[in-house]
């Protein structure tokens, strides 16, 4: 489990295309500290497994399903990525519960800078709109954010200077894709209410 608090801005150093999969090598001095084979690291919000680790770099395999559901397929050598290690049991939950299971992708539609923050408008797949509410939580490229405005086809978030400086959202421009993970609590509630309506839960 992750919290959506990005630990560092890493970089793709190599990409090997394997037909129905890909292998990434990534540089991240912070997240590789103490890393071992089999550990999990979130890359732009996608939970990946460490295959190899050497120095400040690690490799991870990405399956076709992940490439299809996320924006990892567009990454190339030099791409910057948000990196986060799983939260430790008993640690503070700084953001919200993030599984690292991307629900879909959106696109940066607009950026509106102000003096001390920036409003970013992001497209929202129709099948995810029901899970997004004003002042609720959403994960964008692995970043735990609060929804400012929720529409049927888009939502907005407000970014503070720290988020702009230390994550990919400070770099992305209109037209760029982002990974989205909605709040898992909303999905569980929907399922339970649906089961109750069908008489499956008593």
Q: Ends: how far apart?
A: 30 Å
Radius of gyration: 17 Å
Q: Count all strands and give the number.
A: 12
Structural class: mainly beta
Order of helices and strands: EEEEEHEEEEEEHEH
Portion in beta strands: 35-45%
- Across the major sheet, the strand order is 1-2-5-4-3-6
Total number of helical segments? 3
Profile the largest sheet. 6 strands, antiparallel, barrel
Please tell me the overall pLDDT: 91
| Overall geometric form | globular
Low-confidence stretches: none
Residues in helices, as a percent range? 10-25%
Function: Catalyzes the dismutation of two molecules of 6,7-dimethyl-8-ribityllumazine, resulting in the formation of riboflavin and 5-amino-6-(D-ribitylamino)uracil.
Lumazine-binding repeats: 1-96, 97-193
Catalytic activity: 2 6,7-dimethyl-8-(1-D-ribityl)lumazine + H(+) = 5-amino-6-(D-ribitylamino)uracil + riboflavin
Keywords: Repeat, Riboflavin biosynthesis, Transferase
Give a brief description.
Keywords: Repeat, Riboflavin biosynthesis, Transferase. With 202 residues, the chain is mainly β.
Structural write-up:
- By secondary structure, this protein is mainly β.
- It contains three helices and twelve strands, in the order βββββαββββββαβα.
- A six-stranded antiparallel barrel has the order 1-2-5-4-3-6.
- The radius of gyration is 17 Å and the shape is globular.
- It is an enzyme of class 2 (transferase).
- Pathway: Cofactor biosynthesis; riboflavin biosynthesis; riboflavin from 2-hydroxy-3-oxobutyl phosphate and 5-amino-6-(D-ribitylamino)uracil: step 2/2.
- Catalyzes the dismutation of two molecules of 6,7-dimethyl-8-ribityllumazine, resulting in the formation of riboflavin and 5-amino-6-(D-ribitylamino)uracil.
């Amino acid at each position: 489990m992750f919290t959506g608090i990005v630990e560092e801005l890493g970089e793709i150093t190599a990409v090997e295309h394997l037909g129905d999969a890909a292998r990434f090598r990534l540089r991240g001095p912070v997240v590789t500290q103490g890393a071992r084979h089999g550990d999990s690291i979130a890359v732009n919000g996608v939970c990946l497994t460490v295959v190899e680790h050497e120095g400040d770099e690690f490799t991870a395999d990405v399956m076709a399903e992940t490439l299809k559901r996320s924006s990892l397929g567009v990454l190339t050598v030099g791409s910057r990525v948000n990196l986060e290690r799983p939260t430790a049991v008993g640690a503070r939950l700084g953001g919200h519960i993030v599984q690292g299971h991307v629900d879909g992708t959106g696109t940066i539609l607009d950026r509106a800078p102000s003096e001390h923050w920036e409003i970013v408008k992001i497209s929202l797949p129709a099948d995810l709109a029901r899970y997004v509410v004003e002042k609720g939580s959403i994960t964008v490229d692995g970043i735990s954010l609060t929804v400012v405005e929720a529409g049927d086809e888009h939502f907005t978030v407000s970014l503070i200077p720290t988020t702009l400086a230390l994550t990919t959202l400070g770099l992305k421009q209109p037209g760029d894709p982002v990974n989205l993970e909605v709040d898992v609590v909303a999905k569980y509630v929907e399922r339970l209410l649906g089961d109750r309506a069908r008489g499956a839960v008593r």
